[in-house]
Amino acid sequence: MTKPAYQRVLLKLSGEALMGDDPYGINRATIERMVTDVAEVAALGVQLAVVIGGGNIFRGVAPGAQGMDRATADYMGMLATVMNALALADAMRQQGITARVMSAIGIEQVVEPYVRPKALQYLEEGKVVVFAAGTGNPFFTTDTAAALRGSEVSAEIVLKATKVDGVYTADPKKDANATRYESISFDEAISKNLQVMDATAFALCRDQKLPIKVFSIVKPGALKRVIMGEDEGTLVHV
Ligand code: UDP
Question: Measured in angstroms, how far is the CA atom of residue 230 from the centroid of ligand 1?
């Protein structure tokens, strides 16, 4: 059997990926299918760290958050990621995967705090580590948390799961002639003004020479094909 292309990866799941076709919240069938994909790659012996977003929950409360102080709203967003992390880890448990949630903000009665050596230990033990609460700081995003934690745990790549199967020359929903890049360098992505991750996350990955793979989480089995190094999504390389 061919070997996986990576031994340790950082998977970034947006909160919105958990919604399925619902307007907000967590869609049961969607989270279960996603975890099935995760289980498939965990079974290959690949060490998996996950950063989960919070957009799906934050969307539901956003109307009430209008006019709020930005930092306060951001803390709410971080708490939303903790809820998603708990749901994700529990869905993993139900599928026989051992997962540990680590939070960047202190909330010890609920989940353990992020401690880097402990996270590394869990990964080495084959446990899936779910990083919650982003970077722990307002004014950042969970994409930046993915770049940060990916760098900290020496992941070989950041796998950015989206609803689109890669980076395109133009928006494929608006332009029928848009084509997918199989791979593109950080510099090319900047010069062509392509949105891969937010600017802070992108800069950190580029500085750390941490490649990014943008792929579709709605396409069943795509995560495994990415892990096996097959032509799936778009690779952003140094
Ligand atoms: N957030 C934050 N700092 C972080 C990560 C997240 O303040 O380090 C807040 C921010 O308000 C953000 C929300 O949490 O809008 C949810 O994160 P994000 O938008 O990245 O989630 P996603 O879009 O991936 O679901």
Answer: 30
Beta carbons within 8 Å of 93's beta carbon, 6+ residues apart: 99
Report the predicted TM-score, pTM, of the whole model to 2 decimal places.
0.97
Most ligand 1 atoms within 8 A of CB, residue of 83, 130, 142 to mutate: 142
Asked whether 215 and 162 are in contact (CB, 8 A), the reply is yes
Question: Would 162 be classed as within a structural domain?
Answer: yes
For residue 69, how far is its CA from the centre of ligand 1 (angstroms)?
15
Which ipTM score applies to this complex? 0.98
Q: What distance in Å separates the CA atoms of residue 85 and residue 101, rounded to the nearest whole number?
A: 7
The parent domain of residue 39 ranges over 8-237
Query: How does pLDDT run across 71-96, given as a tens digit for each residue?
Result: 999 999 999 999 999 999 999 999 99
CATH of the domain at 164: 3.40.1160.10
Does ligand 1 lie within 6 Å of residue 105's CB atom? no
